[in-house]
From TrEMBL, chains A, B:
<dbReference type="InterPro" id="IPR059125">
    <property type="entry name" value="Ferritin_actino"/>
</dbReference>
<feature type="domain" description="Ferritin-like">
    <location>
        <begin position="10"/>
        <end position="194"/>
    </location>
</feature>
<protein>
    <recommendedName>
        <fullName>Ferritin-like domain-containing protein</fullName>
    </recommendedName>
</protein>
<dbReference type="InterPro" id="IPR012347">
    <property type="entry name" value="Ferritin-like"/>
</dbReference>
<dbReference type="Pfam" id="PF13794">
    <property type="entry name" value="MiaE_2"/>
</dbReference>
<dbReference type="InterPro" id="IPR009078">
    <property type="entry name" value="Ferritin-like_SF"/>
</dbReference>
Amino acid sequence: MDWAAASADPQYRAAVVDLLGALAYGELAAFERLAEDAKLAPTMADKAELAKMASAEFHHFERLRDRLAEIGEEPTQAMEPFVAAYDGFHKQTAPSDWLEGLVKAYVGDSIASDFYREVAARLDSDTRALVLAVLDDTGHGGFAVEKVRAAIDADPRVGGRLALWARRLMGEALSQSQRVVADRDALSTMLVGGVADGFDLAEVGRMFSRITEAHTKRMAALGLAA
Amino acid sequence: MDWAAASADPQYRAAVVDLLGALAYGELAAFERLAEDAKLAPTMADKAELAKMASAEFHHFERLRDRLAEIGEEPTQAMEPFVAAYDGFHKQTAPSDWLEGLVKAYVGDSIASDFYREVAARLDSDTRALVLAVLDDTGHGGFAVEKVRAAIDADPRVGGRLALWARRLMGEALSQSQRVVADRDALSTMLVGGVADGFDLAEVGRMFSRITEAHTKRMAALGLAA
């Protein structure tokens, strides 16, 4: 089903506007934080890597914002309901050094990929194409893996500290997401399997579980057994 | 003359490496500062405008860095001599509010355009094509003009404060540039008319005068008679 057909249902339409608003502000906030965290970089090449991620997030923001305008929505208004959650997340998880910044960039990028993939399946073909296009350009966080590994090899105590940090990132992300789920009925309903199936809190829980599990596996692979 | 022919002269080659290093670090530093200043934006649309400029600067950085690598230079090493000047400039000119940030974005963007245009004429055809391509994608600062005008209309005292601010920006830019000119002989010699003509401090002074004059005219047009 394409957007023209799917958006005839006002609840579906509201859900997609919420989704695009949430993703757009998420990308804009990520841009800001990555650009800020780039200042912690020990070398200019490292700084350029994080700046590159930031710039990619900005282009994602542009695409999502433009799509909102295209379907006749005011982008700022669509983003507004999600500002507190993202700003809260970033405020609670300001990295205190470069390694924490790298782990955050990698974790954030990976969780975003997982979420985009989960949600794509539930969308009309036009919205799905946009979400997959943005997803396709994600994954710039991989450069962090090698550097974090090298730091742990050099000093194994670093691993313990970063493992705690990764848990805190995930905990804060979950707590902000649950706040959004509680507030935004249309979005939540769509996330758990389409409007027709009605709202099922257990299914939201399962989606969060899948994303958390993937995160835990990635952290273990990185040497951050939590 | 193209790069292959022109770069046979080691002094010209050194000058271009200096130039590309200076421009590359300037763009990277501008990215960082604009992304930082975007936090001062009163609305999300304003924030997005400044973030867009930042992202454009990052892409300029990438092109200049890639060109350095292409001609066999280590980009970090080429940028290093200019870090102190740019960092010093930005440290001395951190905007204290959104309007100062806007004026800085506009002034910085305009001076960069003027400088790129001045320098392009003195370059071999390959380097010139790169500099003009980057220049062509500059000019994102124009959005600031309208907003600064509206703020002065609403409260004319704002104009006085911002006029002083614009003077401080130009003063600091000149003082850092003069430091670079004094330190980097090959670059300075090229800037004033090509290697063949020898070094002429008066001509450097005239270039600075032209750029300062254009700046003063722009500020007056903006309602910032200094």
